[in-house]
Amino acid sequence: MPTRKIPRATAKRLPVYYRYLNVLLNANKRRVSSTELSEAVQVDSATIRRDFSYFGELGKRGYGYDVEKLLNFFKGILKQDKLTSVALVGVGSLGSALMNYNFHQSTNLRISAAFDPKESLANTVKSGIPVYPVEDMKKQIREQQIDAVILTVPGSESQAVTDQLVEAGVHGILNFTPVRLSVPKDVQVQNIDLTNELQTLIYFIESNKVTATEDK
Questions:
Q1: Phi and psi (nearest 5°) for 22?
Q2: In this structure, are residues 108 and 84 in contact, taking their beta carbons and an 8 Å threshold?
Q3: pLDDT attached to residue 2
Q4: pLDDT grade for 50, boundaries at 50, 70 and 90
Q5: In whole angstroms, how far apart are CA 159 and each of 107, 152, 155, 164?
Q6: How many other CB atoms are there within 10 angstroms of residue 135's CB atom?
Q7: Which pLDDT belongs to residue 51?
Q8: Calpha distance 144→110 (Å, rounded)
Q9: Which pLDDT score, from 0 to 100, does residue 189 have?
Q10: Which residues of 19-53 are buried (b: 16+ CB within 10 A; e: fewer)?
Q11: In what order do the strands lie in the sheet with 188-191?
Protein backbone atom coordinates (compact mmCIF):
# COMPACT_ATOMS: atom_id res chain seq x y z
CA MET A 1 0.00 0.00 0.00
CA PRO A 2 1.21 3.58 -0.61
CA THR A 3 3.20 5.17 2.21
CA ARG A 4 3.01 8.75 0.91
CA LYS A 5 0.36 10.99 -0.49
CA ILE A 6 -0.45 10.26 -4.13
CA PRO A 7 -0.76 13.28 -6.47
CA ARG A 8 -4.29 13.92 -7.73
CA ALA A 9 -3.14 13.55 -11.36
CA THR A 10 -1.73 10.10 -10.59
CA ALA A 11 -4.92 9.04 -8.78
CA LYS A 12 -6.99 10.03 -11.83
CA ARG A 13 -4.84 7.82 -14.09
CA LEU A 14 -5.11 4.68 -11.95
CA PRO A 15 -8.58 3.66 -13.27
CA VAL A 16 -7.22 4.04 -16.82
CA TYR A 17 -4.39 1.61 -16.07
CA TYR A 18 -6.80 -0.74 -14.33
CA ARG A 19 -9.19 -0.91 -17.28
CA TYR A 20 -6.41 -1.65 -19.76
CA LEU A 21 -4.90 -4.32 -17.51
CA ASN A 22 -8.31 -6.02 -17.56
CA VAL A 23 -8.18 -6.00 -21.36
CA LEU A 24 -4.72 -7.57 -21.29
CA LEU A 25 -5.75 -10.26 -18.82
CA ASN A 26 -8.79 -11.16 -20.92
CA ALA A 27 -6.44 -11.48 -23.91
CA ASN A 28 -4.25 -13.90 -21.89
CA LYS A 29 -1.35 -11.44 -21.84
CA ARG A 30 1.01 -12.37 -19.00
CA ARG A 31 3.31 -9.38 -18.85
CA VAL A 32 3.49 -5.85 -20.18
CA SER A 33 6.16 -3.15 -20.37
CA SER A 34 5.70 0.52 -19.51
CA THR A 35 6.25 1.27 -23.21
CA GLU A 36 3.37 -1.01 -24.22
CA LEU A 37 1.16 0.54 -21.55
CA SER A 38 2.16 3.98 -22.77
CA GLU A 39 1.10 3.28 -26.35
CA ALA A 40 -2.23 1.83 -25.21
CA VAL A 41 -3.35 4.45 -22.68
CA GLN A 42 -1.63 7.48 -24.26
CA VAL A 43 0.43 8.34 -21.18
CA ASP A 44 4.20 8.60 -21.60
CA SER A 45 6.18 5.70 -20.12
CA ALA A 46 8.16 7.92 -17.72
CA THR A 47 4.90 9.14 -16.19
CA ILE A 48 3.63 5.55 -15.87
CA ARG A 49 6.82 4.47 -14.10
CA ARG A 50 6.59 7.49 -11.79
CA ASP A 51 2.93 6.75 -11.04
CA PHE A 52 3.73 3.15 -10.20
CA SER A 53 6.75 4.13 -8.07
CA TYR A 54 4.42 5.66 -5.48
CA PHE A 55 3.31 2.11 -4.65
CA GLY A 56 6.76 0.53 -4.38
CA GLU A 57 8.38 -2.02 -6.70
CA LEU A 58 5.58 -3.26 -8.94
CA GLY A 59 7.74 -4.49 -11.81
CA LYS A 60 11.21 -5.77 -12.69
CA ARG A 61 13.76 -4.06 -14.92
CA GLY A 62 14.03 -5.95 -18.19
CA TYR A 63 10.88 -7.96 -17.46
CA GLY A 64 8.14 -5.39 -17.17
CA TYR A 65 5.01 -5.94 -15.13
CA ASP A 66 3.14 -9.13 -14.35
CA VAL A 67 -0.34 -8.33 -15.67
CA GLU A 68 -2.33 -10.43 -13.21
CA LYS A 69 -0.35 -9.33 -10.16
CA LEU A 70 -0.53 -5.66 -11.18
CA LEU A 71 -4.25 -5.94 -11.88
CA ASN A 72 -4.89 -7.52 -8.48
CA PHE A 73 -2.82 -4.81 -6.80
CA PHE A 74 -4.80 -1.99 -8.39
CA LYS A 75 -8.03 -3.87 -7.73
CA GLY A 76 -7.29 -3.49 -4.03
CA ILE A 77 -6.15 0.13 -4.34
CA LEU A 78 -9.30 1.09 -6.25
CA LYS A 79 -11.54 -1.04 -3.99
CA GLN A 80 -12.59 -3.18 -6.95
CA ASP A 81 -12.28 -6.32 -4.86
CA LYS A 82 -15.61 -5.53 -3.20
CA LEU A 83 -18.93 -3.99 -4.21
CA THR A 84 -19.05 -0.28 -3.37
CA SER A 85 -22.40 1.44 -3.11
CA VAL A 86 -22.92 5.08 -4.01
CA ALA A 87 -26.03 7.25 -3.95
CA LEU A 88 -27.43 9.68 -6.48
CA VAL A 89 -29.23 12.90 -5.58
CA GLY A 90 -31.36 14.45 -8.32
CA VAL A 91 -33.34 12.13 -10.60
CA GLY A 92 -33.63 14.48 -13.58
CA SER A 93 -32.53 13.75 -17.15
CA LEU A 94 -28.83 13.37 -16.29
CA GLY A 95 -29.52 11.51 -13.05
CA SER A 96 -31.85 9.11 -14.85
CA ALA A 97 -29.20 8.44 -17.51
CA LEU A 98 -26.62 7.67 -14.84
CA MET A 99 -29.04 5.37 -13.05
CA ASN A 100 -29.75 3.51 -16.27
CA TYR A 101 -26.03 3.13 -16.94
CA ASN A 102 -25.14 2.30 -13.31
CA PHE A 103 -21.54 1.39 -14.18
CA HIS A 104 -22.66 -1.88 -15.83
CA GLN A 105 -19.85 -4.36 -16.57
CA SER A 106 -17.11 -1.82 -15.92
CA THR A 107 -16.48 -1.59 -12.19
CA ASN A 108 -17.64 -2.81 -8.81
CA LEU A 109 -19.44 0.47 -8.23
CA ARG A 110 -23.21 0.46 -7.99
CA ILE A 111 -25.79 3.18 -7.43
CA SER A 112 -27.81 1.59 -4.64
CA ALA A 113 -30.08 4.50 -3.71
CA ALA A 114 -31.41 7.68 -5.30
CA PHE A 115 -33.10 10.72 -3.81
CA ASP A 116 -35.40 13.34 -5.31
CA PRO A 117 -37.91 15.89 -3.96
CA LYS A 118 -40.59 15.08 -6.53
CA GLU A 119 -43.51 13.34 -4.84
CA SER A 120 -44.20 11.33 -8.00
CA LEU A 121 -40.78 9.67 -7.69
CA ALA A 122 -40.79 9.05 -3.94
CA ASN A 123 -40.74 5.38 -2.93
CA THR A 124 -40.56 4.13 -6.52
CA VAL A 125 -37.99 1.96 -8.29
CA LYS A 126 -36.25 3.38 -11.36
CA SER A 127 -33.78 1.32 -13.42
CA GLY A 128 -33.79 -1.19 -10.58
CA ILE A 129 -32.76 1.46 -8.04
CA PRO A 130 -35.02 2.57 -5.16
CA VAL A 131 -35.83 6.28 -5.17
CA TYR A 132 -36.41 7.85 -1.76
CA PRO A 133 -37.80 11.26 -0.81
CA VAL A 134 -35.10 13.73 0.20
CA GLU A 135 -36.52 13.72 3.73
CA ASP A 136 -35.14 10.18 4.08
CA MET A 137 -31.73 11.01 2.59
CA LYS A 138 -29.64 11.38 5.75
CA LYS A 139 -31.27 8.35 7.37
CA GLN A 140 -30.75 6.08 4.33
CA ILE A 141 -27.17 7.21 3.73
CA ARG A 142 -26.28 6.43 7.32
CA GLU A 143 -28.09 3.10 7.37
CA GLN A 144 -26.61 1.98 4.03
CA GLN A 145 -23.18 3.32 5.05
CA ILE A 146 -22.79 5.20 1.78
CA ASP A 147 -19.57 7.19 1.55
CA ALA A 148 -19.86 8.72 -1.94
CA VAL A 149 -22.67 10.56 -3.71
CA ILE A 150 -23.31 11.70 -7.27
CA LEU A 151 -24.89 15.16 -7.24
CA THR A 152 -27.10 16.14 -10.19
CA VAL A 153 -29.46 18.66 -8.60
CA PRO A 154 -30.05 22.23 -9.90
CA GLY A 155 -27.20 24.57 -9.01
CA SER A 156 -29.45 26.68 -6.76
CA GLU A 157 -29.99 23.65 -4.50
CA SER A 158 -26.51 22.14 -4.60
CA GLN A 159 -24.94 23.73 -1.50
CA ALA A 160 -27.96 23.09 0.73
CA VAL A 161 -28.04 19.44 -0.37
CA THR A 162 -24.28 19.17 0.12
CA ASP A 163 -24.60 20.43 3.69
CA GLN A 164 -27.10 17.65 4.39
CA LEU A 165 -24.83 15.05 2.80
CA VAL A 166 -21.90 16.17 4.95
CA GLU A 167 -24.11 15.91 8.05
CA ALA A 168 -25.02 12.37 6.98
CA GLY A 169 -21.34 11.41 6.92
CA VAL A 170 -20.60 11.43 3.19
CA HIS A 171 -16.88 11.81 2.38
CA GLY A 172 -16.96 12.16 -1.40
CA ILE A 173 -19.16 14.01 -3.91
CA LEU A 174 -19.09 13.74 -7.70
CA ASN A 175 -20.49 17.15 -8.54
CA PHE A 176 -22.27 17.60 -11.87
CA THR A 177 -23.60 21.03 -10.93
CA PRO A 178 -21.90 24.29 -12.05
CA VAL A 179 -21.52 25.43 -8.43
CA ARG A 180 -18.21 25.02 -6.61
CA LEU A 181 -19.21 23.46 -3.32
CA SER A 182 -18.02 24.44 0.13
CA VAL A 183 -17.14 21.34 2.18
CA PRO A 184 -14.95 20.40 5.17
CA LYS A 185 -11.36 19.33 4.51
CA ASP A 186 -12.19 15.65 5.02
CA VAL A 187 -14.74 15.66 2.19
CA GLN A 188 -13.50 15.24 -1.39
CA VAL A 189 -15.32 16.89 -4.29
CA GLN A 190 -14.76 15.95 -7.93
CA ASN A 191 -16.29 18.55 -10.27
CA ILE A 192 -17.63 17.41 -13.64
CA ASP A 193 -18.46 20.42 -15.82
CA LEU A 194 -19.73 19.00 -19.12
CA THR A 195 -20.06 22.43 -20.74
CA ASN A 196 -16.48 23.34 -19.84
CA GLU A 197 -15.17 20.00 -21.09
CA LEU A 198 -17.01 20.36 -24.40
CA GLN A 199 -15.85 23.95 -24.89
CA THR A 200 -12.27 22.87 -24.19
CA LEU A 201 -12.60 20.06 -26.73
CA ILE A 202 -13.93 22.46 -29.37
CA TYR A 203 -11.06 24.87 -28.63
CA PHE A 204 -8.48 22.16 -29.28
CA ILE A 205 -10.29 21.05 -32.44
CA GLU A 206 -10.19 24.59 -33.82
CA SER A 207 -6.56 25.06 -32.72
CA ASN A 208 -5.57 21.88 -34.55
CA LYS A 209 -7.34 23.09 -37.68
CA VAL A 210 -5.39 26.37 -37.58
CA THR A 211 -2.09 24.52 -37.03
CA ALA A 212 -2.82 22.12 -39.89
CA THR A 213 -3.59 25.07 -42.21
CA GLU A 214 -0.38 26.90 -41.23
CA ASP A 215 1.70 23.75 -41.86
CA LYS A 216 0.46 23.44 -45.45
A1: -60, -40
A2: yes
A3: 43
A4: confident
A5: 29, 12, 8, 9
A6: 10
A7: 84
A8: 13
A9: 94
A10: ebbbebeeeeeebbebebbbeeeebeeeebeebbe
A11: 124-126, 129-133, 109-116, 84-89, 148-151, 172-175, 188-191
Task: Tell me the CA distances in angstroms from 157 to 5, 19, 89, 138, 160, one per residue in order.
Answer: 33, 35, 11, 16, 6
Q: Domains along the chain?
A: 8-77 (1.10.10.10), 84-195 (3.40.50.720)
User: pLDDT by residue (tens digit) across 190-205?
Assistant: 999 888 888 888 988 8
Three-state DSSP at 113 gives strand
In the chain, % helix, strand, coil (3-state, to 5) comes to 45, 20, 35
User: Kind of pairing, strands 109-116 and 84-89?
Assistant: parallel
* Amino acid letter for position 160: A
Strand blocks (E) in 119-206: 124-126, 129-133, 148-151, 172-175, 188-191
Q: Which of 135, 94, 138, 140 minimizes the C-alpha distance to 113?
A: 140
